[in-house]
Amino acid sequence: MSWETVIGLEIHAQLSTKSKLFSGGSTKFGAESNTHVDLVDMGLPGVLPVANKEAFYKAIKFGLATGAHINQISSFDRKNYFYPDLPKGYQITQMTKPIVEKGSIKVSTENGEKIINITRAHLEEDAGKSIHDLFEGETGVDLNRAGTPLLEIVSEPEISSAKEAVAYFKAIRQLVTFLDICDGNMAQGSMRCDVNVSIKKIDSKELGTRAELKNINSFKFIEKAINFEIERQISVIESGESVVQETRLYDSDKNETRSMRSKEEANDYRYFPCPDLLPVVISDKELNEIKDNLPELPEEKQKRYISEIGLESSEAKIISSSKAMADMFEEASKKTDDAKMTAKWLVGDISALLNKENIEIDESKLSPENFGKLIERISDNTISGKIAKSVLEEVWENGNDVDEIIKAKGLIQIQDESLLEQIATQVLNSNPDQVAAYRSGKDKLFGFFVGQVMKETQGKANPKSVNEILKKILS
Amino acid sequence: MTIKYKTIKEIKKMISQKEISHKEIIQDVYKLVKENVNLNAFITLNEEKSLKKAENFDNNPSDSSLAGIPIAQKDLFCTKGLRTTCGSRILDNFIPPYTATVIENLENAGCISVGKTNMDEFAMGSSNETSYFGNVHNPWGDNLVPGGSSGGSASAIAAGIVPAASGTDTGGSIRQPASLCGITGIKPTYGRISRWGMIAFASSLDQAGPMARTVEDCALLLNEMCSHDIKDTTSLDNEIPNFEDNLNNSLKGKKIGVVKDLDLSSLDKDVIEVYENSLKEFISMGAELVDVSLPNLALSVPTYYVVAPAECSSNLSRFDGVKFGRRSKDPKSLEELYVQTRSEGFGDEVKRRILIGSYVLSAGYYDAYYKKAQQVRRLIKQDFDKAFLSVDVIMTPTTRGPAFDIGSKGSDPIQMYLEDLFTISANLAGLPAMSLPNGNIDNKPIGLQIIGNFLDESSILNFGHMYQTKTNWHMFSPEGVIQ
Q: Do A308 and A248 belong together in one domain?
């Protein structure tokens, strides 16, 4: 029997606002427990929330970039449940009138481009964190994260494979980072997702019963968790049983999903409009201002890199694939006249280093200034491309200044032609057999002579000059 | 020299004529507190700090409008460093790290907060019998309830301990005890006074207000209590008038709405008589009576008892033993922590309302109850909007009768809920309303309710003050007419 998979994603993107969604508390990551918590975040008796407009502006950017409808009047609801890291006993969220509805995003899949529709994107506050392993027999609660603004982006159930789900998540991540509304940092939990998975017979129109996989925060785990879940559901159905609607937890150590709670055990969240908050109204003026100031998005960048800078389309695609890459390219290009060479190095050597270490460029020690300087030193003939590679290696290791490395190691290219001539003559004299062979027609030996000269100069000779000098002597 | 039964205006005069020092005023307050300890009006006193503040005023005279005026604060306003219990066991050890805006406003105007008054637990009750800290007694009779939920505040004023107190009113919690204790109390328009620091019962209905001996004093207090507060998004930023400005306006030609849909037949003859006598008093001052129709008024009690419990069931979720307040000893699991803490911490009435609220919000019932109630609420508001097209104020009795005996309605919550019949609609519609004494029945005071249009506190203050210039019901104390 053939099965078709139906997947929908709920992505939680932490919005990069300075303060929390309903208080002046700081949203900074990594502070000591319970130090970024004000009266409102603690849910003290008598405190009241005040909505942070900055979070709305960021959510609207997302809506506009996905061609969505913006609800200029949106409102907040309370989702009631008890948990120690939920200080008020309810979460303030947007149930009935979300700020963003009906958008879509283009995703590159194995089978080409696909449009995935976005049902809604709404604002809500994050909970704190329960810490289970720090105190024996007790659970700690850290409320630093409580109240941090989240944009929950809900897709239509239109995703048909684990790989496609990852591609969709990547597209959303690319978008929110380009929009500068979320830092996209998965390791710090700035983006996480819940996945709804169901299967159905290929010819069936009805959707199967779905399971919700909770709180997955890496691309790798999303793919693995979905694939495990698909297999599990198929085997449940093929063994004559039926899938139950439930929430499941993905265990990355064992690579399996486990039942967390069934539909019967599910909370009744008793949603109702939050009486402490009036509906938030976004004026036409505010909306237009956000529209006019939307940043350049990947597709636009790619086109511009090709038409205005003259990059190869493959280079333009790689460079515009992430905000960090594009920022590095654009910043470094300001330091040099040679944007094309900047692109070549970024796509070539630097991408190779990134892949090797499996990091993003903004996690490396390479600053745009230093990178631009490196390119500039190549194009003004201070160093050769080969030397540049070794300089890059050192920058990569310790982030030292390019000019200082060149100076300290005496790597400046030998420009003195008479000195090069002297070395070249010396090389030819000490290799009489090869010179004879060359003269009798073995042209390929020319490269050998170039190499020997480069070796003698420890790579500091300009290869172009060496070529010319050797040709002159040998002719 | 004593401040017993004195109004704010009178105390201000005593101060300015140097008949009494600030310290003597505060000392007198605590003497009166001790003499009336049987009333159980206070949960926590603030003696040391209050005396210090008074000494400060003696040493550095202030021209603030309420400099040195002793005031009792209902124990649901957060007061920094001073225990705030909301009448509940679950908060019996709670010392807030911040102060409510309205308390700050009053203290900035010079008021001295002498203590925190007893109240129905989380403001849920109409008799002050649901307080964890015990019943409050009515100075008019030891066996009488003072009304609720602001019963401690009302009782303290009626006994002459303080000239003024803060209260809160979600369904009548200022007006009903004002009526039962023979004092004046106002619930302003929803949003006039910031809710920041007021422990929420039902957020869309809760409103703080002043309680005092006279309308004039209430106007003085209102001037200081009202403010636009950016910490409360439901706080109004409309202009706040000087509430003393229109107190003495003539009532000639002004129109009083009398609700023709209101069935008074179930009330005692005496109650109706008191009510009709006050209407006559207003006619004698030149006002006219106009019949108005509030066809959905009868639905206000059931509407209220859906909306208020729904909001309270959510508002009270934060009392879970995790972060503040009482925590049950040695729970074996998270669930036990919640269940035991809340079972031990909340009283029966609070539990009843959390249950009702959770039920009306639950999946499958939301549309039938909560949503419907909100729709009815809109209709009630529209009824008032229409009525106020033709009248300046609307008058009703505040309560169905004078103070009843402690324990007499305890077993039947519905009987207790009906206590709020006349007062609830003003909360549902967000309108300002006042209760002021307008008679005595069997030596028990009773009040008249004056409801105003949205933001029109000035009219109800005007009607109320003019009434108090013609009558002396507000000058009655349990010990007779105050000289």
A: no
Mean pLDDT for all residues in chain A: 91
Residue B249 resides in a domain: yes
Q: Is the pLDDT of residue A457 over 90?
A: no
pTM for this entry:
0.90
Average pLDDT, chain B: 96
Which position has the higher pLDDT, B224 or A440?
B224
For B370, which residue in chain A has the nearest alpha carbon? A272
Please check whether residue A71 is in contact with residue A97, taking contact to mean a CB–CB distance below 8 angstroms: yes
- Average pLDDT on A198-211 reads 90
pLDDT tens digits along A245-271? 999 999 888 888 888 877 767 789 999
Please give the average per-residue pLDDT across A16-43, as a whole number: 94
> Which residue in B has a C-alpha nearest to residue A80's C-alpha?
B314
Assess if residue B190 is contained within a domain: yes
Nearest to A285 by CA among A57, A21, A17: A57
Contact A82 B370 (CB under 8 A): no
In this structure, of A177-191, A301-315, A432-446, A455-469, the range with the lowest mean pLDDT score is A455-469
Of the pLDDT bands very low, low, confident and very high (cuts 50, 70, 90), residue A284 is very high
| Distance in angstroms (rounded) separating the CA atoms of residues A419 and A425 | 10
Same domain, A132 and A157: yes
A215 pLDDT band, cuts 50/70/90, is: confident
Is residue B433 domain-resident?
yes
SS (H, E, C) B2-71: CCCCCCHHHHHHHHHCCCCCHHHHHHHHHHHHHHCHHHCCEEEECHHHHHHHHHHHHHCCCCCCCCCCEE
Closest residue on chain B to A82 (Cα): B317
Count of structural domains within chain A: 3
Shortest Cα–Cα distance, A132 to chain B (Å): 13
| Domain shared by A431 and A305, yes or no | no
Residue A310 domain boundaries: 296-408
Average pLDDT over every residue of A364-389: 88
> CB of A266 within 8 Å of any CB in chain B?
no
Domain that holds residue B203: 8-254+389-481
Pseudo-torsion of CA B307, B313, B316, B318, nearest 10°?
Answer: -130
Instruction: Show which of A390, A408, A426 is a domain's final residue.
Output: A408
Q: For B354-375, what is each residue's pLDDT tens digit?
A: 999 999 999 999 999 999 999 9
Assess whether A398 and A421 both reside in one domain: no
pLDDT at A1 over 70: no
Distance CA(B167)–CA(B149), nearest Å, equals: 8
Q: Do A80 and B97 touch (CB under 8 A)?
A: no
On the CB side of B459, CA atoms within 13 Å amount to: 24
Q: Which of B102, B313, B319, B320 to mutate to test the interface with A (most CBs of A within 10 A)?
A: B320
Contacts of A276 in chain B (CB under 8 A): 200, 203, 233-234
Q: Please list the active-site residues of B.
A: 74, 149, 173
Look up the CATH number of the domain holding residue B462.
3.90.1300.10
Q: What share of chain B is helix, strand, coil (3-state, %, to 5)?
A: 40, 15, 45
The answer to whether residue B358 sits within a structural domain is: no
Q: How many residues does chain B have?
A: 483
Q: Do A48 and B324 touch (CB under 8 A)?
A: no
